Amino acid sequence: MLIKDLFERKKVVYSFELFPPKPTSPIETLQKALDELKELSPDYISITYGTGAGIGDNTLNLCRLIKREYKIEPLSHLTCIHSNKQGILKYLKELEASGIENILALRGDVKPDFPLSKDFRYASELIEFIRQHGNFGISAACYPEGHFEAPDIVADIKNLKKKVDAGAQHLNTQLFFDNEDFYRFMDMAQIAGIGVPIQAGVMPLVKRRQIERIIGLTGVKIPAKISRMLAKLGDSDQALFDAGIAYATEQIIDLLSYGVRGIHLYIMNNAAVAKRITQNISSIIRGQ
Ligand code: FAD
Asked: Which of 59, 95, 116, 179 has the greatest number of CB atoms lying within 10 Å of its CB?
């Protein structure tokens, strides 16, 4: 099912993100996690896409496994900044042949070791290309605090509108920890004429190492509340896990109370995180 149709049918769209194992590892390493995730009935699972030779293979393999064996809708990420039209077309054909309907179209981060694409500069160009070559549901990324390369949030939202105008039907946000940033972003997106569903991306911070990595990768703001939590509880794995789950639960309840229609959980392949969060919010998202 197309993700835009899920938003028509569901009170709240609820999904998880996984990253595939390295190209040299079998996807079966994720089988146990998938068995547990299936029990939580996500509306879809998104699978990240890396950069470099053979990287997309396990994204595709995992999407196929999720669709075929687990009967869950996969959302395949796809990056273009180090690809050409021929390679993207081949991937689209493979998705189509496997019955995979949804793509999260991304530019990707620029890796200095790889040559830049001669065909694609921005995600909006990939979106246009996908639209011309199939009937896929197309999603795109957005940034409540602004993308780190954009001069300011207004410029970034103008560029986001180009992705929607090019054919993006649904947006997933970068993770964020302060809901006020997200609400401000939603207001600005509405003023810019962006009318597609925007799903809030939440990452429960349950490991100390995760935090440094996240700041390094995304540059998102870490509120003082999280810094204090880390300083006080960082030495106990269980305490930090419990506190990270509590913080994310409170964040999600506030988002849902505000009227947000979609929650996307960045679970870092940790099914225990998905399980605890789902237990905490299921009566709210499923309206039971
Ligand atoms: P774009 O939308 O192309 O934007 C990139 C920058 O260019 C922004 O600053 C934007 O303001 C600017 N820009 C856009 N269009 C124009 C224009 N016409 N003129 C001037 N400036 C413009 N990375 C991966 O490698 N693999 C993944 O699987 C992955 N999944 C992600 C999932 C989500 C939900 C998110 C939020 C990010 C993900 N990323 C992933 C990271 C992403 O690739 C990076 O954030 C990347 O730097 C930007 O990708 P984009 O698609 O948002 O780029």
From this structure: 59
156 lines ligand 1 (CB under 6 A): yes
| pLDDT per residue as tens digits for the range 179-233 | 999 999 999 999 999 999 999 999 999 998 888 788 788 889 999 999 999 899 9
Residue closest to 67 by CA, chosen among 105, 29, 27, 106 = 27
Helix (H) or strand (E) holding 271: helix 271-285
**Is any ligand 1 atom within 6 A of the Cβ of residue 7?**
no
| Ligand 1 touching residue 137 (CB < 6 A) | no
Rounded alpha-carbon distances, angstroms, from residue 162 to 125, 165, 256, 284: 9, 5, 28, 34
Residues paired with 112 in a beta bridge? none
- CB of 55 closer than 6 angstroms to any ligand 1 atom: no
Cα–Cα distance measured from residue 80 to residue 70, given in angstroms and rounded to the nearest whole number: 28
Q: Which residue CA neighbors atom 38 of ligand 1 most closely? A: 141
Q: Within 10 A of 285 (CB to CB), how many other CB atoms are there?
A: 18
- Residue by residue, DSSP assigns 125-165 as HHHHHHHHT---EEEEEE-TT--TTSSSHHHHHHHHHHHHH
pLDDT score, position 106: 98
Which CATH fold topology does 3-205+257-287 show?
Answer: TIM Barrel (3.20.20)
Ligand 1 centroid to residue 219 C-alpha, Å: 13
Output the pTM of the full model.
0.97
Active site residues: 17
What digits encode the pLDDT tens for the residues 231-258?
A: 999 889 999 999 999 999 999 999 999 9
DSSP state of 109: -
Select from 252, 112, 259 the least CA-distant residue to 197. 259
